[in-house]
Design a protein that fits this description.
single chain; Tetracycline Repressor, domain 2; 0% strand; Arc Repressor Mutant, subunit A; mainly alpha
Amino acid sequence: MNNTTKDKLLEAAVRVLNMQPRASLADIAEAAGVKRVTLHRVIGTREELLRDVAFRALEQMDEACYTAVKGKRKAFEQLKAIVGALVPYADSCHFLWKNPDVWDDPEIAREIKRHDQELCDLIDRAKAEGDILSFIPNSWIIASLDAVLYAAASTAKAGNIATNDASALAIQTLFGGITKKVKGTALAGA
């Protein structure tokens, strides 16, 4: 099997399915510049395509995160590096968030749960080290990370900023905010 054809199909599938989660295989094949028969020969069924896209996304996230944290000891530095490293893969991450049907697959669900747990553990370490406010729920931090990744990727994709700038802006926005000082807010527990 030609990996470049499969990669091309999976990349097209991510783009198309993020815009139209119920897109047909014909739409995906057209976006990849191949015939539908090629998609069926290389990938198979729609379920197999969704599974392949999900596992590819999880592998990309694993590789990006592993590479990003190398040599960094503090949890906060690791988190910042992970955010920056995930921006180029935000479309794949977005696919997982936008297509919860793939979570019905036990293997995929197990991998997503592992990813979430590893991220929660890292956030807990950063809280224990005093770098993240302890009263902010991990679920809020993860949802914020998801939103910032989406904003970075969509802004870069629109051509408004470079991907490297998008990574830096994502880190700044998530961990430093967009203002010098927030006024008029008081959170319980703050």
